[in-house]
Amino acid sequence: MTFPKISLECLLATITKATQKPQDEFAAEFMLDFVQEQPDTMAAIVAMLEPYLKTQPEGETVLIAEAQDLILQATFTVLGVVMKAVNAQQEAEEMNEAWG
Fold this sequence. Notes:
This protein is an all-alpha fold. Helix content is about 75%, strand content about 0%. The protein contains four helices and no strands. Helix 2 (about 25-35) packs across helix 3 and helix 3 runs antiparallel to helix 4.
């Protein structure tokens, strides 16, 4: 089984709900909930993002275009790993049901 396709209506409803509070508040609540519900996944996400968030040596600056590229790369790396892990977990559970 592949990850279920998210309908546009569901996506828009979720975005609407998420934007009813400030983005930093939504993010903080999600992180706190996620660390409780999926501690291993949250630890993996933090580990993948850590290289991007390390303090740079004094005086080093990064052009905005380079920073944007890094943010985009980090976002889709984390999203890709989590989505593929969800799909793999679903497939493993289906196999266990079939063979169990």
